[in-house]
Amino acid sequence: MDAHVVVGYDGSPESVAAVRWAAGAARRRGMPLQVVHVWGLAGHLDTPPLRATSAYVRAGAQEVAEEGAQIARAAAPDIEVTGVLDDGPPARALVDRAAHAALIVLGRHGAARLSGVLLGSVALGTLQHAPCPVVVVPRTDGDRAPTGLVVVGVDGSRHALGAVDAAGRYAAGADAHVRVVACWQVPVHGRSLMAWLREFPEVPPEDLAVQAAERALEGARALITERYPQVEVELLVEEGPTARVLARHAEKADLLVVGTRGRGGLAGLVLGSVSQWLVARAACPVAVSRTVPD
Fold it and tell me: Whole-model pTM?
């Protein structure tokens, strides 16, 4: 199957924002868009007394899928858009479609609790299991003027470099620039930093933490310069909790990109937990990448 973008649509304002964002992403990538509405009643209505009801409900569900497709066509008239009706638990259905997608886009609903913040259960399930990058779009994204800024957090891990690659790819297609942010805090407990402390006991821990952050930034710069030479790169080292620092930068960004399940040398930078916090709280769309660069 050719590469395409998938977006979930259920008629809610959150999913409308997601469809519009996904249409723009598909246009920038030159890919077709599938607008997927998932209903979960087919397996429960397939008995003789309820078959007529099942057909009626299915027809209504297909109308919802087509409604989402029309929203996408209005947002990006020059792309191929298909309204798709699928069956089953929504997260599972979307994850199945992710196997053949370049990107999955979802609206941010507040339903399931995760680490003290609210995140929709469909978004949570898709984030946990989708093999391709997932973008979660807040309902208010359509009210924000574009800034031409993509923010990505790094911690020195290969998963963070995968996020850098995703940020560079998006920025190249959107004529945007990338701000790469590495955060540090003391006390530090990362294994590589602890090894450096043993080797250089006379160096203050905060100096080593800053050095590690700078090394992570240089790796990010090298990757973007090699793969996306047309993209302007800004490097920042900041002290503070990673999630809150990135959330602050996201307030003025078009997209925030994070890796997941990557642990680097800086304390607290387990981007799995950071990405989950940011997906539920950031002011701009958040792209979560599981890939690592070749």
Answer: 0.83
